[in-house]
Amino acid sequence: MVQITSRSVSVPAGGAGAARNTGSAETSSAAGMEQSVRRRSSPERLRQLVHRPDPQDVFPTGLTKLTDSQFSVSAHWPRPHRFFAPVAGHQDPLLIAETMRQTTMLIAHSEFGVPLGDAFVMWELRYASEAGRLELGEEPWDITVDVSCSRIQRRGRSLGSMHLELLLHRRGTVLASGGGRISCTSARAYQRVRGHRSDMLDARIPLLPAVAPRTVGRTSEHDVVLAPASAPSTWALRLDTRHPTLFSHSNDHVPGILLLEAARQAAQAASPGRTFLPTSIEADFRQYVELDRPCWIEALPVLADGVSPAGVRIRAVQDDEPAFTCTLRTPDLRQTGLSDARSRRS
Question: What is the DSSP code (8-state) at residue 333?
Fold first, then answer.
């Protein structure tokens, strides 16, 4: 488990719910939209609702309620981003995961009554996409995220837990489908459980030496989250608490998006000579990863099975226990003649 409490464009909503396909997004019927309620928030309010203090890290732009459990969220992806930079002419697939994360928090706060001080715990996150649907092109990246919530458990007037299915589409074409499972903890309960770790909120964490940026698909050491280790296919987790995107605010444990980035970088390091574009991710967050104890990132190749492309299985191990596991899959970009270098931020 991991706490995920780390230009406004109106886009027509597609069908609510995340069908697991990569075809065309179906447009909701006019009758279905008659009952929708559009929520408009100021940029400052949006930053609060998605827990991102820097405007350039905020991707949702608006929210429409379709039913009590179905919603449509408009979002915008930048072409260049200081961290989620393009990869070999494609949008960074981790934008999918981060948009899912922000969408979940936006809906939980706006529609399920979760107070801003409460903590979110992400237990599972998965998505599937295709490389061709992420090619940059020349058009703006205005996106619609259709969300269907199920197995909703209430905690008083707030939210206890729920499952989500999400469908991301753009200009009538599905970009990705995915889902996840979250639970919410009140600020008081979180203090009881994690209060003994509050001294880590502003602690100085020793910055480990970085592996060579190119080996993990990065152009700057500033964005590298892996450090060398003596065991093969193993790295130490490298934490820079000054990083503006990965540590956008004080935290008492390792943020989930950093663990996903560590998994992606380890997958790239375990796949020398090719570009690893994580078009598919299945992640399980089992327990908090603490900031002040060593965490080891281990990689194991996963063979193609005739249905899914090859990939890499990642484990984050702390205190001899797997705290996070993730399977990432990539198409073979060498077959398309694409460069294996990550596009530089502009």
Answer: G
Indicate the SS3 state at residue 336. Answer: helix
Find out whether 236 and 277 touch, Cβ atoms under 8 Å: no
**Other C-beta atoms lying within 10 Å of the C-beta of residue 108:** 22
Contact 343, 134 (CB under 8 A): no
Burial class (CB in 10 A: 0-12, 13-18, 19+), 261: buried
- Looking up tokens 């899959």, which residue turns up? 329
Pairing of β 119-129 and β 280-285: antiparallel
Other CB atoms closer than 10 Å to residue 68's CB: what's the count?
10
Q: List Cα–Cα distances, 37 to 13, 65, 160, 248, 285, in angstroms.
A: 12, 5, 24, 31, 33
Tokens in use for 304? 């193609």
Determine phi and psi for 340, rounding to 5 degrees: -95, 10
**pLDDT tens-digit map of 25-61:** 544 433 344 457 887 778 899 999 999 999 999 999 9
Residues 6+ apart with CB under 8 A from 41: 49, 62, 63, 110
**Alpha-carbon torsion (102, 103, 106, 107), positive or negative:** negative
pTM over 0.85: yes
Q: β-pairing, 234-237 with 226-227?
A: antiparallel
Angle at 13 between CA 126 and CA 63, to 5 degrees: 75
Mean pLDDT of 295-302: 97
What are 217's two structure tokens?
């698909």
Alpha carbons 229 and 222: distance in angstroms, whole number: 19
Q: At residue 190, what are phi and psi to the nearest 5 degrees?
A: -65, -35
Write out pLDDT tens, residues 324-335.
999 999 998 764
CA distance 26 to 304: 31
Enter the tokens of residue 47: 């930053």
Other C-beta atoms closer than 10 Å to the C-beta of 45 total 13
Any idea what DSSP says for residue 340?
A: S
Report whether 316 contacts 237 (CB < 8 A).
yes
Residue type present at position 201:
L
CB atoms within 10 A of CB 225: 28
User: Do 316 and 297 meet the contact criterion of CB atoms below 8 Å apart?
Assistant: yes
Q: To which H or E segment does residue 270 belong?
A: none
